[in-house]
Amino acid sequence: MGDTLSGTFEITWEGIVHDPVSPNGRHELTRALLRRHLEKVMPDELLAHSGTSDMEDEPEAILRHPDVMVIAWEDLDTEGSIDPRTVLAAIEIVSRSNPDNDWVGKVRDYALMGIPVYAVFDPRTGTGAVFTDIHPTPAGPRYATRKDFVYGENVTIAEWTIPTQGLPLYGRTT
């Protein structure tokens, strides 16, 4: 499908998600700023990675591609997809065209994949949330803790606190 349709594809717990719109400049700027902020406070053996690598949980049949993942350099040395159990945090910048993918689907899937920290930045509203503390539920693993934030506040992702002041917002569409 990727050869004939534009956008990105991911395999979720519920099926295939297609986001037909490629990330825009403000999305990419947010990703770059978050990477830079994180790498200033993280130890050298870790990377805020925003490359083309997918995370794949074969037992759960989930393949996701976070905007940024915090991972040890050595865990990138793999032939195939990245093992989600090596990812310390996943970060998403909400897509204007498919916000439920980040706010609903990935909250569910990242807990199922065992990602200990999931941070969502929403340039539509200038808000976000950090999800932590995976716990079992009858419906499967879920995040127990959600900490909301507003752009302009400092936010803690895992053990690193970064600023959100100056992150861009999406412009209004007419």
From TrEMBL:
Q: Which residues form the Putative restriction endonuclease domain?
A: 11-134
In the record, which residues are listed under signal peptide? none
Gene3D superfamilies, alphabetized: tt1808, chain A
Pfam family for this entry, one: Uma2
Q: Name one GO molecular function term.
A: endonuclease activity
SUPFAM superfamilies, alphabetized: Restriction endonuclease-like
Cross-referenced PANTHER family, in alphabetical order? SLL0198 PROTEIN-RELATED, SLL0888 PROTEIN
Keyword Phosphoprotein assigned: no
Keywords in alphabetical order: Endonuclease, Hydrolase, Nuclease
In its UniProt entry, what is this protein called? Uma2 family endonuclease
Q: Which domain of life is it from?
A: Bacteria
CDD domains (alphabetical): DUF820-like (cd06260)
Q: Does the keyword ATP-binding apply?
A: no
